[in-house]
Amino acid sequence: TAYEQNIVTPIVWKDLLIFSGTGKGVFAIRPAWRNNTWATDKVWHNEEVSMYMNSPVISGELLFGMSHKQKGQFFCLDLNTGKTLWTGDGRQGENAAMTMAGTTLFSLTNDADLIVSAVSSKGPSQIKRYHVADSPTWAHPVIVGNRILIKDEKTLASFIVP
Asked: What angle do CA 64, 86, 100 make, to 5 degrees?
């Protein structure tokens, strides 16, 4: 990135490593051991979306994340091809900490909005949106049984998931 940091955690899918960074798009490489050394082959590169602080999540053959483009835009990619399947509305926030529970996606924006969505390759599928704190939320939500833990700047709260 242009900064001396890279906050997007690479993610593994099958034999691919998926990366992103500010202005770098999202790309997949396949590492291979050849001639007694490691080599990488670029499998696909998508420049339509790019992540800054959001680490993506995977469900089946789908990658979900939040692009820094459009001032915060959720998206879904096909992991086989890297093709963008959909992008949501812009201006959703600087960051979203995302986690999966079954076929439900939980996205916690830094503005303390918890967005609960169904996994879908057809478009954003928001089930419910909750405002869960009075200060910024940067930590990932944690699902424990039928509860979700949310940490903001000052508190740790536990909510019952219906």
From this structure: 20
- Distance between alpha carbon 123 and the CA centroid of its chain, in Å? 15
Question: Which pTM value belongs to this model?
Answer: 0.92
Identify the sign of the CA torsion 150, 51, 115, 94: positive
From residue 80, give the alpha-carbon distance in Å to each of 20, 53, 68, 83, 122.
Answer: 16, 23, 23, 8, 16
Over residues 2-25, the pLDDT tens digits come to 666 667 899 999 999 999 988 889
Spatial separation of the C-alpha atoms in residues 118 and 162, rounded to whole Å: 14
Which 3-state string (H, E, C) describes the chain?
CCCCCCCCCCEEECCEEEEEECCCEEEEEEEEEECCEEEEEEEEEECCCCCCCCCCEEECCEEEEEECHHHCEEEEEECCCCCEEEECCCCCCCCEEEEEECCEEEEEECCCEEEEEECCCCCCCEEEEEECCCCCCCCCCEEECCEEEEECCCCEEEEECC
Query: Which residue reads 């303390």 in tokens?
Result: 112
